[in-house]
Amino acid sequence: MGDRAGRQGRGPVAGLVVAALVAAGCMAGGVDQGEPQQQPAPRRSAQPDSQTTRADGTTSVAEFKQDIEDAVRLAERYWAQQFRASGQRFTPIRRVVPYSREGEVACAGQALPRNNAVYCSAGDFIAYDVNWSVAAFRQIGDAFLFYLLGHEYAHGMQVRLGIRYNFTIQQELQADCMAGAYLGDSVRSGALELEDGDLEEFREGLLAVGDDPDQPWFAEGSHGTAEQRSDSFFRGYEKSLGACGLG
Length: 247
Description:
The protein is an alpha/beta fold. The protein is about 40% helix and about 10% strand.
């Protein structure tokens, strides 16, 4: 995937009607409370630059780190543009925290487990298990990292917009749609260049993170089946944020 400076587009954030519903917490990418118990990673700047990066087929740790930085920078830039276009003040997510051991990072006093990625609302940070993420990067591809960070960043935007649902699955599927919109809009604006196979990597990643088909949709922590998550993501990818209940 390639990241380059893109054009500013008008977003539908200003027309959002917030439902008066109760928020559902979610350990695997939801809106938990807490503060990381370690030194924060440096926050990335939202300022566009002319640097272009592309997937080169390697699976090095250096490339992984660069892709994470690119994904965070691109998401921050995209949402800054959407908020500005709607006349709203944008505040970027405070930090992105990698961790490698269970209990190394806590959210509301609760240790984050391995094999996870989370947005923590009280601390306003994203945390991800670096070993799990590197394994997914090597098995699926760099596009998965852009989806993963896009999904978690979307949870931060839900908090900023006051979006709250009765059920976790509603929060999660909307975040998938928002992640798809951010990536699709970034491609259409020229801010992001897809390489051959990147769309398939998105599909493979969504298949990997889907719920078991037997899991009740109303259960706490439900994210949606692979089919539901894929449908939500690509609806946002093709139709932008208006397809995500934000217009």
